[in-house]
Design goal:
With 152 residues, the chain is an alpha+beta fold. It contains four helices and six strands. A six-stranded antiparallel beta barrel has the order 1-2-3-6-5-4. The longest helix is centred in the N-terminal third of the chain and has 16 residues.
């Protein structure tokens, strides 16, 4: 498995992510944003990070534009988590998508959020061929979200 990771800078961690998470916790989705809560694979503690929830052909996905970051490792171990938007909390199961099945999802993700995340995809964009998308697929984990159900 690839260990590709692009760590965020100070501004992203301390300003941008906090601002998006703050708005999302108050029920304001910024272009599909949610706060992902997933149990830590070592600590068992809930870990939270802002993510973009993508819908393609009626299916929901989480894409890791920065690569194999902590939440992706935790998701693999936990097999699911929670998505938060304001007071709405949905529990879900997650299945990792294989590299050969990623081009359609990566294309849709880049089409929607290229201005925000395009730099992490090494020049590959929404207009790239399936082969080009498949060539970078191993660097960007994708999880299909299923069994969304409200948590009271």
């Amino acid at each position: 498995m690839s260990e590709h990771v692009i760590k965020p800078g100070w501004f992203v961690v301390n300003v941008l992510n906090r601002a998006v998470a703050w708005l999302t916790r108050r029920g304001l989705s910024v272009w599909g944003s949610r706060v992902l809560a997933v149990r830590g694979r070592k600590s068992g503690e809930w870990r939270r990070t802002p993510v973009n929830l993508l819908e393609v052909n009626g299916e929901r996905y989480l894409v890791a534009p920065r690569g194999h970051v902590q939440w992706t490792h935790n998701m693999r171990a936990a097999g699911g988590g929670r998505l938060l938007l304001g007071k709405k909390v949905e529990e879900f199961s997650a299945t990792e998508v294989g590299d050969d099945a990623k081009p359609e999802v990566l294309r849709a993700y880049l089409k929607r959020w290229k201005a925000e995340v395009g730099v992490f995809f090494g020049g590959v964009g929404a207009d790239s061929s399936d082969e080009e998308l498949r060539a970078i697929a191993h660097k960007h984990p994708v999880f299909r979200i299923t069994e969304l159900r409200p948590v009271s």
